[in-house]
Specification:
Inosine-uridine Nucleoside N-ribohydrolase, Chain A, binds calcium ion, binds alpha-D-ribofuranose, about 35% helix, alpha/beta, nine-stranded mixed beta sheet, single chain
Amino acid sequence: MGAQSAGPSRVPLVIDTDPGVDDAVALLLAMASPEIDLRAVTTVFGNVGLETTTANARRLLTLGGRPEVPLAAGAARPLVHPQAMRADDWHGGDGLGGRADTLPAPGPLDRRGAVELLADVLRATDTPVTLAPIGPLTNIALLLAAHPELRPKIGRIVVMGGALTGGNTTSTAEFNVHCDPEAAHRVLAGEPVPLTLVPLELTMGCAVDGHWLDELAAGGPRCATLAGVIEHYRARSRTAHGVDGVALHDAVAVLESAVPGTLRTEPMTLRVDCAPGPGRGTVLRTEGADAAGARPVDVALGTDVPALHAEILRRLRTLDQR
Ligand code: RIB
Ligand code: CA
């Protein structure tokens, strides 16, 4: 790959993803965002198995009109212990709300594998790249373990994951971190790379309502396909929470990647509980001696939610205005 540079003020971005319904929104949002120079997509196990997340990501790039973006598959399992649970109850057995076959056929797959593709993108760039992991952090941990020399090529990492006040997988653990706590600890606590964490309490507070979803469905054929993918998750949310709304967790992280400063953040030093037991996968704030050696990360605590809703919808609708 030849040296690449982004256009004026564009953000070179790689998304690491486990599609996943909200991942689908995030990927299309990235393709709808003019600030984003989407350099590659890498896939990881998570909501569903790697083969399915990979096929889904390939379909989504085609749906968004970007089948040429290099896409490679990564880790099929966590670093150390087996994945404790998937999320196919929320995302459907096909990972896309039972609607995977309403999307275009999967586009091409890069045979390099996720870590090699990520490393090649970082070697080739002359502008630091933003990494947006919106699934388990296994691929990112592997990249940083195998290629520490490439850290300076990473502008920042914008992670959707973790929870500071209550989990969605256990009472204290968020799904992406719970899938691979060891990888999450390495990335959140052990790597001297600038990092913004977009935690569950922030993303739950950014849930969109039925009116927003209906507006999306009316946006045109691509938006209608995406709205169809969301329906299963919407129904599950009604059952689980008794509300007509959907938390588009991963899309919040991608909008922050495209427009830095969308989210209000506070620096914190963190660690992840990797011990077996009920606390496994919990993100913990550290202070004093407990924080020794950890660099602070910027934890997103708030945003202008109506503005965020409007901006995500506006961007997605441009996909049908091309
Ligand atoms: O906890 C939310 C995260 O887990 C999101 O990335 C969603 O896709 C699920 O994987
Ligand atoms: Ca995800």
